[in-house]
Amino acid sequence: PEVKEFLKELPKCEHHLHLEGTLEPDLLFPLAKRNNVALPQGFPQTVEELNEKYKQFDDLQDFLNFYYMGCQVLINECDFYELAWQYFLKVHKQGLKHAELFFDPQSHTERGISVDTVYNGFAKACSKAESELGISSKLIMCILRDCPLQKCQDLVEKEAAHLIKEGKVHGLGLDSAEKPFPPTLFTNIYASAKKLNPELRLTAHAGEEGDHTYVKNSIDFLKVERIDHGVNSVQSDDLLRELSANKTMLTVCPLSNIKLQVFQDLKELPLLKLLEFGVPFSLNSDDPAYFGGYILENYYAVHETFGFDYKIWGDIVINTIKGSWCDENRKTELI
Ligand code: ES4
Ligand code: ZN
């Protein structure tokens, strides 16, 4: 009723969204058909069966297996464009104003698709979202931390170097299976990306299944200015004080944490502790096609669990805007 309208009207920004994670079953099957892609043995055959599987994942890896199988239906530039455009249409109706979007080139280049095919499709959707829907956006390229290190280095220094140099990707991120791939493995790759373009923004998934040292080491070694998930930061009060002092934002993903069994109940999501320590966080959907909700459903779920008043919601939204990687003029427009 009234509070739902309030949450919808808030000028929301999303900082943690994997474009490949917006692949709904009702787009996956038509794309498989159109592109003549044979899905792996044992893959669900219908939208209903696939939705049934998506009801619960055992853990991050169980989800990632489905996520990468889904990626296989994306072949042509128009597939990437369509995927992103469908996402923008959905969140436009939910009051999203600004989106910072992850994509995973290695889940496509391994299948012989060029980085430019992927980038061009996504970038076209982003331009159209800006002009037709008023949604601003930035693309963040992610390294798959469970790929061989040499391939990660080649992505940054060769295949996608032009995108970094020309500022076409605004940020660099690190995702996929967190353990046993600690951030320190990627120290040199992050440094060389930053060297290609000193304006490149840096973030990394940390503290989702890894412990608080993954968060601390991402900051110290990768020089990230933001942490994706980061919920295990609450294992260390020292770390919380540091995040607060430096205004390092955590991009928290409530429904994702439930679906991947990081928490059994949303009540365990440590938002009160983050508020208490003054650690800025945003609320995000992560992989909405897999986790049962887009940005607004994540806001609803948090509201149902925590019942924040208007003042706290206002503070969360203002922190989210301030922590965004858009320019200051855009931030002023949003507030
Ligand atoms: C992801 Cl939830 C999550 N964690 C790590 N990597 C990912 N890639 C897509 N979703
Ligand atoms: Zn993620």
Structure commentary:
- This protein has an 8-stranded parallel sheet.
- The protein has 18 helices and 8 strands.
- It has one domain (2-334): Metal-dependent hydrolases (TIM Barrel).
- The chain starts with a helix and ends with a helix.
- The model has no long low-confidence stretch (mean pLDDT 98).
- It has helices at 2-9, 25-34, 47-53, 60-71, 77-92, 106-109, 115-133, 149-159, 161-165, 187-196, 212-222, 237-246, 254-259, 271-277, 288-291, 295-306, 310-322, 328-334; strands at 12-18, 96-103, 136-144, 171-175, 201-206, 226-229, 249-252, 281-283.
- 51% of the residues lie in helices and 14% in strands.
- Helix 5 packs parallel to helix 7 (115-133).
- It has 335 residues and is α/β, with parallel strands linked by helices.
- The longest helix is centred in the middle third of the chain and has 19 residues, at 115-133.
- Bound molecules: 6-chloro-9H-purine (ES4) and zinc ion.
- 6-chloro-9H-purine binds next to helix 4.
* CATH level 1 name: Alpha Beta
Q: State the end-to-end distance.
A: 24 Å
Largest sheet: 8 strands, parallel
Tell me, briefly, the overall form.
globular
Beta-strand residue fraction? 5-15%
Q: If you average the pLDDT, what whole number results?
A: 98
Alpha plus pi helix count: 18
Sequence of secondary-structure elements: HEHHHHEHHEHHEHEHEHEHHEHHHH
Q: Looking across the biggest beta sheet, what order are the strands in?
A: 1-2-3-4-5-6-7-8
**Could you give me the name of the CATH homologous superfamily?**
Metal-dependent hydrolases
- Total E-strand runs: 8
CATH architectural arrangement: Alpha-Beta Barrel
CATH domain fold name = TIM Barrel
**Computed CA radius of gyration, to the nearest angstrom:** 19 Å
Main structural class? alpha/beta
Function: Catalyzes the hydrolytic deamination of adenine to hypoxanthine. Plays an important role in the purine salvage pathway and in nitrogen catabolism.
Catalytic activity: adenine + H2O + H(+) = hypoxanthine + NH4(+)
Protein name: Adenine deaminase
Organism: Hanseniaspora osmophila
